[in-house]
C-alpha cells in the first residue's frame, strides 16, 4: 500500500509523563478529527504527530482521541473497538468520530483499573460476539472479570446485548496490575487470559490462586480440558503458567507459540515464551530489584524457573504486543512489536523460532499503551492518557 501524501510537522507540544505504572495520564494539545482527509486508498489521513526519533522508518497519523484508552481491536470490516478505562467502549470508523456502545457494565475505575482489554470473538463474523476484561467492583474490593457479549448494531445506536461474565478472579481485593490481556488459541476453540498479581507478590506462587498467572479456558469460561492442573478444580484448574507479575501483552505467532510481555519491578521487564505448566519465578526471581532498592535473585540463580527470552533494565514498562505479519512493513514480518509506557517507545524484537533478539527501539515522545495490526496490514498505536490518540504508523 502507498503511504499517505506528505506529512508536515504538527504544531503544539506534547506534555508528557514518565511514570512507569500508568497512574498519571498524558495530556496534549488536540484538534478536530472528524474533518480528517482521506487518502486515495480510502484511509483517513488524520493529523500528523511528530516522531522524535529520526531513525524511525515511519511517521504517525492520528485519527481519533480517547479518554484514557486501554485497548484497540480491529473488526473484520476495518473498524476498531477501543476501550476507555473510565468504562466506555467506542467504535471508530475511518473518517468518522468514534461512536459510544451502550450496555457496558460498571467498572472499578482508578489507578490501573477500569475497562481493560477487548477482542472480537473468533466467530465474530457469524455471531457478532466480543470479549472484554475489566476491574469488577465489589464489597471486598475489585476483581479481574472477563465478559462475553453480542455487539448489536440493529438499532439507532450500537449496544451490548446478552452480556455474561464468564470468569471472576477470586477473592476480590485492592491493588493494581490486573494484566487482563485476551488471546485466542490458533484454532479459535479456547482463549488465554493474563492475570496480574495485583501488587500482592506472593499469590503469583500460590497454586490455588488465579493471580499472577496465564489462564486458559473454553470460550464459555470453563477451564480448558488440556490444562495441566484441571483435576485440581477451583481456580487452579484454569492455570496454564504461573509466576507472573503484570502481563500487559499476550499473543500467538504463526507457528503457534504463545508470547507474553510483563512489567518487572525496578527493572527486569520481560518477553516470555509461555509454556504449559511452567513457572516464571515472580516474586522469587527477577532481573530487576524491589522499588526500595533491595535486590531480588536473578533468574539464573533458580534454574527451576523458566527464564525470560529478553529483559529490559532499566524498565520500559511494555504494554501491547503483536507478532507482525502486515503488508506495511514487510521487513518486520515475524517480529514482536510492543509499546512502552515509561519508556515512551515502540520496540521491535526479532523472533527466530523460540528465540528472540532486540533489534529496534524508537523514541516516540509519548506513552504507548497498545499496538495493533488491522485487517489491511497497517500498524496502529494507541497513546496512553486523558487525550490518548489512535495513530497509524505510515511507512516513510
UniProtKB/TrEMBL annotation:
Domain Glucose/Sorbosone dehydrogenase residue range list: 66-392
InterPro entries assigned to the protein according to its UniProt record, in alphabetical order: 6-blade_b-propeller_TolB-like, Glc/Sorbosone_DH, Quinoprot_gluc/sorb_DH_b-prop
Domain of life: Bacteria
Signal peptide from the UniProt entry: none
Residues covered by region (Disordered): 25-50
Name of the protein in its database record: PQQ-dependent sugar dehydrogenase
